[in-house]
Every structure is written in structure tokens, then in C-alpha cells.
Amino acid sequence: MSKKPGWREIPIGTVLTEAGSSVKLKTGSWRAYRPIIDHTKCVRCLMCWLFCPDFSVKISEKEGKVERVDIDYDYCKGCGICAEVCPTKAIRMEPEVSG
Amino acid sequence: MAKVIGLTGDEAVAYAVKQCDVDVIAAYPITPQTVMVERLSDYVADGEIDAEFVPVESEHSALSVCVGASLTGARVFTATCSQGLALMHEILYIASALRCPIVMAIANRALSAPINIHCDHSDTLGSRDSGWIQIYTENVQEVYDSIIEAFRISEDKRVLLPTMVCLDGFILSHCMERVETLEDAEVKGFLLPKPEYPYPIDPERPMTYGPVALPDFYFEFKRQQEEAMKNARSVIREVNDAFAKLSGRKYDVIRADFIEDSDVVIMCMGSAVGTMRHAVRELRKEGLKVGLIKVRVYRPFPEEELRKALEDKKVVIAMDRACSPGAMGGPLYEDVCSLLYDAEPKPKVANVVYGLGGRDLTPSDAKGICKYALEILKTGIVKERIKFVGVRE
After folding, report:
1. Closest Cα of chain A to B133: distance in Å?
2. Which one of 3.90.180.10, 3.30.360.10, 3.40.50.970, 3.10.105.10 gives the CATH number of domain B3-247?
């Protein structure tokens, strides 16, 4: 990681001069449990997409219909709400294993 | 030509703010600041200033509105005191960290309980660490002049910090005095065209204001605030000089009277300075030599000027119109002790706490404080670190 700027190099007043910069903060590294979707059970009802507090459920569409639902692991913090609300129990939470 | 008007402290604030051509005022009335808000809402309603007046539901909202308005690059004013300032407390830190050059007048008033509407400095001294510049005034002329100076100081790009202009509740806020005013055009010429805030809110250039800054960035923003306070020291000097050229009235961060030939110096802030000066003059007629230092700018603390003024003094009395139960003494006392820790030779320093909840500081109290200082000079002993003047035993 590059060196962080010193106090003289940062804009004053806590201002972030670039809009939309939160995209750069990959919160996926905070995750202790990883949601895994079993696509054989998923009925694409989008309850997980509706309840996800971090917009981390990605939808792939084809001809106006939902083809597939995936988790965006760059931002998913592993809260497990998707697994909780899934009516077909298609999402399971597995511990993240490092190394 | 300067027009001379009879104004109370509150009216002088409102009149100065009108001449400073502010863009946004958001304030909630509270005794003894109320007249400022009444006059300003009159000015706006009568079209005498082209400003947005936001009648908010609380002081917390008042300062929050001011922060938002200030971030657009507008010139912003508010006023409060006591419980109102306490309710603003969390936003005080936000205003200074977001570098909003807001000017706020405070008609100093004691904090509850017991509920009290009269003067002491416990409200603003309790906010001394919030990152605001603090100016304490002695009379109504100084109130008027300090409001104008405050906008010029706060809005300078080297500073960009908010300023509190403090006037003693009732003693100054409701006391009518002769005030020499400036012409509107003179005030306009003295101020910056607009605040030099570098990132005014602009829908065409979206930015984020006040985001989260965790352990990896928070510290750097606080360091920037320290630097701004350091810059404020020199900017305040420049502004005082420029104001003297314009008005003929020269202010400084401190004012020292009779200190050249005095071994003993009394330090105080606000309207008590006038009473103490009277006492010091009277005692000189009796051959008793006591010096007086008024601390006008309390934050940033006038370290350099005070160090010079207190050089070689033998006794220093710091007077606090506030108490800090459980502390070594009042806020001014503690600052003066820190200042003098490195002094050689080191003077004896004692604390006087006086005037809480609007208790009068009488001329005889004032003389008594001077004599107390002379007693310490004679004996070399400070018997009680905090002396409470005016309380019933």
C-alpha cells in the first residue's frame, strides 16, 4: 500500500473533493462469514437483494428477466441478513478462512 | 464620518452584524442574548439586510444550520449563551473541524443549576477546547468593534475557524453606552469580499463534507486545526492593526496597564477589567503599585505577549469568573500556571474565583484583590490556591 498523506497534503475541513470515492473502500475484508448461494435452490425472488444493507447482491438480467443472483464479495461485510431472509434456504454462511 | 449612537451590548452586536452584510442568520433567543436576535430579525424583515433569517427550534439546530450555510461559502452569524451554548456543544466541534468561519456572539451567562440568567464565564470557558477563537470584551464599544474584527479574522484563508465574541450578560448586553460606529462602506471595505472557504458546496462539483475518518486519518485533521490556531495569532495581529488604521481604536490580544513599575499583576477578562482598572488607579493614589492585564483573546492563548508582559513579575493573580470543581483552579489560572512554569524567576501565582451567577464585583472587592496580591508579595506565601471573592461564608 502506498504511503498515506501527511496533514499538510490533505484538503482542510475533512472534505473529500472527489465524489463517489467510497467505492474505493473495499469493505469485504471486514467479513468473518461468507454467504454462499446454492443456485439449485435459488428461486430468484430477490428478497436478499431487497434486504442487503450494503447493495452487495448483484443481479444478472437477460431479456428483462433475472437470470442469476450473486454476492459482491468486494463489499459484502458478511452480516448474514440475506441468509436469514432467504425463503428457500439457498444461502449458507461459511466461516472465512485465511491463508 | 463616524456616527455616535447609544447602543446596548446586544444592540451593538446586531448593528455590527448588519453592517457586516451577513448572508445567513440562524439563532434561537435566550436571555440575555435575546435582543440581538430580535434586532436582527427586524433588520431582515424590514429589508435592511439581504440575509436569510432561519428561526430554528433549538440552539443545536441553529448552529447546524450555520454549519451548512457556511459550507456554501456564505457569511454566517449566530448568537447564544449558557444552556444554549451547552446544547450546541457537539456542533461546536463540528463547526471548527469543518473549518466554518462562523461568528457567534455570546452574552455570557451562568450555567444551571440553579437556574440563573446573570453573568459568569462558565459557558464559554467550558467550550475552550472546541477549536473556536474566543474574544472577551470589556465595554460596548469593544463589542461592536470585535464583531467586525471577528468576521475578518475567521474568514481569512490562513485561519478559517469560527469565532466567539463574548460579552458579559446584562453587564454589557443590556448596558447602553456611547458607541462610535463606522460607515457601512467602511465596514464593507474592511471585510473580505466573502469568506475564503476553498470548497463551497456546488451541485456541479459534488464533494463529501464531514465523512468518517478513522484512526488512519482523524489525527491529521486535528493537527490542521492546531496549525490554523497558530496562523490565527498572526492574522489577529494584522487585523488589529488594520482596524486601528480604519477606526483609530487599537486593540491587542492583551491589554496591559501600569505593569512597568509593578511587581504584582492582576489578570482578568470581560467587564471586570474596567472595575479592576478603577481599583488599580485608586490604589496608585495611595502609592500602592499593582499592574493589570486584560486577556482579550483567550483562544488562541496569547502566550508570547503574556510571557513578555509577565517577565520579572513577583506575584500574578489570575481571576476566573467560572469554577471548575475538582480542578487545581479556574481555567485562566491553569493556563497562566502552565505559561509560567518555565519562567525564571518564577512568580507566585494565585487564583481568584469571583462573580459567579452574576454576583457583583464591587470596587471594594476589586481593591481587596489588589491588596491580597500585595500581601502575597510581602509574605511570599499563597495561603489558599483558590480564593473565592464575594461568596458568603
Report:
1. 16
2. 3.40.50.970
